[in-house]
Amino acid sequence: MTRTKYTQEQILAVLKEAEAGASTAELIRKHGIGQDTFYRWKRLYGGLQREELQRVRALEEENKRLKRVIADQALNLQLLQDKLGKRS
């Protein structure tokens, strides 16, 4: 997945401008984004507040951490099974 040059806070600011009444064409030109990008942002982040965005980000980080823990445990389990299998 490619990195965006806009932070999530900046994306929310652009969407807030749109909610305040700025035209889509004006925002696209002002911020140098494509129309597809604007509508993708609107679909993904539309209606989110800053606090909600922070909570989502925290949950994503926790999810990543838990996936790493599960992967490590699965690897350890596989190593133990290999060692036990070789002794028999």
Structure summary:
The protein is mostly helical and 88 residues long.
Task: Give an account of the 3D structure.
The chain is mostly helical. The protein has two domains: 1-48; 50-88. The chain is 78% helix and 0% strand. The protein is built from four helices and no strands. The chain has helices at 8-19, 24-31, 35-45, 50-87. The protein is elongated. The chain starts with 7 loop residues before the first helix and ends with a helix.
**Structural Rg:** 22 Å
Helix content: over 70%
Distance between the termini: 45 Å
Shape: elongated
What topology emerges from the helices and strands here?
Layout: H1 8-19, H2 24-31, H3 35-45, H4 50-87
Identify the notable features of this structure and list them briefly.
single chain; 78% helix; 88 residues; 2 domains; 4 helices; mainly alpha; 0% strand
